[in-house]
């Protein structure tokens, strides 16, 4: 039997029925940003918890994000930052791309990559002492 709780999460960005890649090349990131420009898209982040007793719990969090209309200057400058590398949809909201966001409905932390409310709820529900490091009662 394992003695640890395992937590894993992953994120995808979708526009309509199209799931965007985790951009690895500048052209991929530029294509994603042009597609997201001036539009709403959805960010789905799944988090899965496996307990020491092999109990599996999971949640999927959906967040809607609307980008401003991006100029070619916006896109070129963002590509030069390299923040987009390996990021779902070719952007990292916690960095420079946060300035592209006109509206967000849902969980900011899920767009970053780990939905905190859901993760803490899953851990707490399975008896993990999530509050013990907060300095107060566990």
Brief write-up:
By secondary structure, this protein is an alpha+beta fold.
Q: What does the model show?
A:
The protein contains four helices and five strands, in the order E-E-H-E-E-H-E-H-H. By secondary structure, the protein is α+β, with helices and mostly antiparallel strands. The chain has a single domain (6-134), classed as Alpha-Beta Complex (Maf protein). It is elongated, with a radius of gyration of 17 Å.
Largest sheet: 5 strands, antiparallel
Q: What is the mean predicted local confidence, pLDDT? A: 95
Oligomer: single chain
CATH-defined architecture:
Alpha-Beta Complex
Number of separate helices: 4
Distance between the termini: 25 Å
**Given this structure, which CATH class is correct?**
Alpha Beta
What is the tally of beta strands? 5
Q: Which stretches are poorly predicted, pLDDT < 50 over at least 5 residues?
A: none
Helicity level, as a percent range? 25-40%
Q: Tell me the domain tally.
A: 1
The radius of gyration over CA amounts to 17 Å
Q: Helix/strand/pairing class, anyone?
A: alpha+beta
Strand order of the largest sheet: 2-1-3-4-5
Instruction: Sum up the overall morphology in one term.
Output: elongated
CATH topology: Maf protein
Q: Tell me the series of helices and strands, N- to C-terminal.
A: EEHEEHEHH
Approximate strand percentage = 25-35%
């Amino acid at each position: 039997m394992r003695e640890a709780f395992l937590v894993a999460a992953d994120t995808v960005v979708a526009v309509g029925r199209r799931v965007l890649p985790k951009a690895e090349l500048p052209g991929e990131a530029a294509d994603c940003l042009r597609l997201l420009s001036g539009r709403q898209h959805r960010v789905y982040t799944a988090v899965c918890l496996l307990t020491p007793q092999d109990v599996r719990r999971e949640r999927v969090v959906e967040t809607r994000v609307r980008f401003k209309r991006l100029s070619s200057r916006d896109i070129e400058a963002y590509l030069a930052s390299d923040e987009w590398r390996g990021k779902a949809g070719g952007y990292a909201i916690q960095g420079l791309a946060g300035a592209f966001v006109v509206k967000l409905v849902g969980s900011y932390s899920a767009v970053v990559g780990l939905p905190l409310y859901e993760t803490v709820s899953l851990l707490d529900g399975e008896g993990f002492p999530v509050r013990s490091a907060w300095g107060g009662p566990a």
